[in-house]
Write a structure and sequence with these properties.
With 727 residues, the chain is of the alpha+beta class. Helices cover 45% and strands 24% of the residues.
Length: 727
């Protein structure tokens, strides 16, 4: 890769540099399309400077950024990655669908002030699984392409200035660039004061002479032959040359030569601009050092950090030198970005990096591992010292960050892993600390967890359940149980709540709390939700055929199910139509917290379902951050009081007051109340006295199979007194 990057530095024009960069992407990634784009129209559009399709050069195009993955890429400081289904995520981007794109990589090209000026993009027709090495290579390539783009902008500005001023003296008097103008025979006509300053020659000493007087002797004849060929073919040449000052000192300069033609198209002048790049060349020699740093915070980047960790693992294997690794994740950092914007988020990350640096020794290795994650390698550290360091970090991070008038409150979760004989690689070491951090995050914010075999076992079980759940969903091996919901007016069953159940041949019964959380985490929740919906509607159709056409069904839905499905409302309505179920006989249950925190798109979809006749229930009310204002703001048909509240109904007067008030308020707002978790006759009677509309719980029945649900309905029909249903 180094040799290829060196080739980029040696190109003689921006067109060659961009084409070479895209050819390198073609070789490394085999992308279907890739391009280098420049921002236009105040950043609202992109025009490609070079465009490849399946390894071939294509004509440049221009397109708008709104509702495209490129718009997301321009907001990111890292590589913007979409491994699959990117066209589905950006349905307004017709180009993705027309080109058959499934995966996407994009990196913002920035100027020296870190403002976006362009973008480097690779697009693929198949889902991709990018390695860390390939992503780092792509980002390194983008860094070099950005330097080229910055230079192009500078050159365009300079050439525009020269064309406008057209040899006026102000160019020579005020320009900080050295300028030399020769005639068509390449004899020196004019040089500016900056040229005299850089070279030590006075203009009077050079008039009529060839620029060869400055030659250092370091370039051979083919070098100059190529330069003249470029000038005659393209009218412009740019590159690095070594020239000699009058005092004999050889120095590097960045030289740009432009051909000026008269009205007849004949060459009238050559205009050369150059600047001394001695300091820049010195910075280039330090490139390897800066390549190891993360640009925003100045900390080690992931690649550099892993290299240092590998060195310490080797040291442990040779000398048994102890070390510990801390993995830190900021809690709810996304909320800061969403609330205040990515610029404030970046300033918070820089502040966190500075605080972490105050907690470590010079021998320790601190990195920004990615996003809002930081890793710390504590060299020569005992477990006790590592834990003490983690406590210091928690104390520092949790201090408010003052940004102008903003006061940002932060918490974090920390995982610690200690090196031992099982630490075979840097990846394993970081993974162990990461698993401990995830355990800390699940426990509570602002906590520390030390890696153990138990944590590893939990992680392995989660991965095992993820794979098994994916297979079980594909094979329709899950089942659905039904818990009756009782009308407290009539004492009859009015509907059933559909609840997913999973029994694995190897692991036995896996409880919903466990496998539903895994489905949410690993993107299986939409598949699970559709399975439960279709199975419940199919079973409801069976009940209707048996004569119980008044019975309805409730199905739980998470916000992510609405986000992951392309047309969630249409999918629900299609399932209802398929099984010939009336819309009013389906209730979609969403938790209060989901309904409140959901994007407007999700709330609009729920409202659209209600407009079509589907019922909506707010589940788990009285938990979390319940507010009476939510009853006004959120459109719903049912309010479900959480079982944890119902079960304290008999012993707590305050709970009695709240439940009675909620029932009255909900009724006034045209909502009906369902009380969950009823377990005894006293609770049943109390809720009935309060005017509660419906209830469910083990007092009536546990969740049962479809066959048992039919038996419950048959028994209810045979009873003489409605209240006997509860028995």
């Amino acid at each position: 890769m180094t040799q290829s990057f060196n080739a980029l530095y040696q190109t003689s024009s921006s067109e060659q540099a961009y084409e070479l960069a895209l050819s390198m992407i073609d070789e490394v990634f085999a992308a279907k399309y890739c391009f280098v784009g420049r921002l236009s129209d105040d950043g609202a559009r992109v025009r490609t400077a070079a465009f490849h399709g399946q390894g071939n050069v294509l004509a440049n195009i221009e397109y708008g950024l709104e509702e495209t993955p490129c718009a997301d890429a321009l907001q990111s400081v890292d590589v913007c990655i979409y491994n699959e289904q990117v066209a589905d995520l950006f349905p307004q981007d017709t180009m993705l669908r027309e080109l058959g794109i499934h995966a996407y990589l994009g990196v913002t090209l920035r100027d020296v002030a870190r403002n976006p000026i362009g973008i480097l993009v690779a697009m693929f027709e198949q889902p991709q699984d990018f390695s860390e090495q390939s992503l780092q290579w792509f980002q390194d390539l983008a860094f070099i392409v950005a330097a080229q783009a910055r230079h192009d902008i500078d050159i365009e500005r300079k050439n525009t200035m020269l064309a406008e001023l057209s040899l006026r003296n102000i160019v020579f008097e005020q320009s900080k660039e050295a300028i030399m103008i020769t005639d068509s025979e390449n004899k020196i006509l004019r040089v500016n004061p900056a040229f005299e300053l850089y070279t030590g020659y006075r203009e009077s000493e050079l008039l009529g002479r060839s620029p060869g007087v400055l030659a250092s002797g370091r370039h051979d004849q083919p070098f100059y032959a190529n330069m003249w060929q470029q000038l005659h073919n393209h009218g412009h040449w740019r590159g690095e040359v070594y020239n000699r000052r009058k005092n004999g000192e050889v120095y590097p300069e960045e030289l740009s030569i432009t051909v000026n033609r008269d009205d007849k198209g004949e060459i009238s002048h050559y205009i050369g601009l150059f600047r001394d790049i001695s300091d820049w060349k010195e910075s280039e020699r330090q490139l390897r050092f800066f390549a190891n740093q993360e640009p925003l915070t100045g900390l080690h980047n992931r690649r550099s950090f892993l290299e240092r960790v590998e060195q310490h693992i080797d040291l442990f294997n040779e000398q048994r030198t102890l070390s510990s690794l801390l993995f830190l994740n900021l809690d709810r950092f996304k909320d800061i970005n969403d609330l205040y914007g990515p610029e404030v988020g970046d300033r918070v990350l820089v502040a966190v990096a500075l605080r972490l640096q105050h907690c470590v020794l010079s021998s320790d290795v601190l990195s920004r591992y990615g996003g809002d994650e930081f890793t710390l390698l504590l060299a020569n550290s005992s477990p006790q010292q590592a834990y003490a360091c983690a406590q210091r970090i928690l104390t520092h991070i949790c201090q408010p960050i003052r940004l102008g008038e903003l006061n940002i409150e932060l918490t974090c979760s920390l995982g610690i892993a200690h090196i031992d004989n099982n630490t075979k690689s840097a990846t394993v070491f970081v993974r162990n600390a990461n698993h401990a951090m995830l355990s800390a995050k699940r426990a509570q914010s602002q906590s520390i967890v030390i890696y153990s075999d138990e944590i590893e076992g939990q992680y392995l079980r989660k991965i095992q359940l993820r794979d098994k759940l994916a297979k079980a969903l594909k094979a329709n091996e899950l089942s659905v149980a039904y818990q009756p919901i009782i009308s407290l007016r009539s004492g009859k069953i009015t509907k059933f709540e559909a609840l997913a159940r999973w029994h694995d041949e190897e692991l036995g019964t896996i409880y919903p709390d466990e496998f539903i959380a895994i489905a949410e985490e690993f993107g299986l929740i939409s598949v699970l939700g559709q399975f439960v919906l279709k199975r419940a509607l199919n079973d409801l159709a069976t009940l209707h055929k048996r004569g119980y056409r008044h019975i309805g069904v409730s199905v739980n839905r998470s916000a992510s199910e609405f986000n992951h499905l392309l047309q969630p409302v249409e999918a629900i309505l299609a399932a209802l139509h398929e099984h010939q179920i009336a819309t009013h006989q389906l209730t979609i249950e969403v938790t209060e917290s989901v309904a409140i925190g959901a994007q407007k798109q999700v709330q609009d979809q729920l409202n659209e379902l209600r407009d079509k006749g589907v019922k909506v229930a707010l589940d788990d009310f009285c938990t979390g951050y319940s507010s009476l204002s939510h009853l006004i703001d959120l459109r719903a048909d049912y309010l479900k009081i959480d079982k944890s509240f119902t079960q304290q109904l008999l012993g707590e007067h305050k709970h009695q007051v709240v439940i009675a008030s909620l029932i009255k308020i909900a009724s006034e707002l045209d909502m009906e109340v369902i009380a969950e978790g009823v377990e005894c006759e006293e609770q049943h009677q109390q809720l009935r006295d309060y005017g509660c509309h419906f209830s469910q719980g083990f007092y009536y029945s546990e969740p049962v199979s479809l066959a048992q649900a039919l038996i419950l309905l048959e028994q209810a029909d045979s009873l003489t007194s409605p209240l006997e249903v509860s028995h």
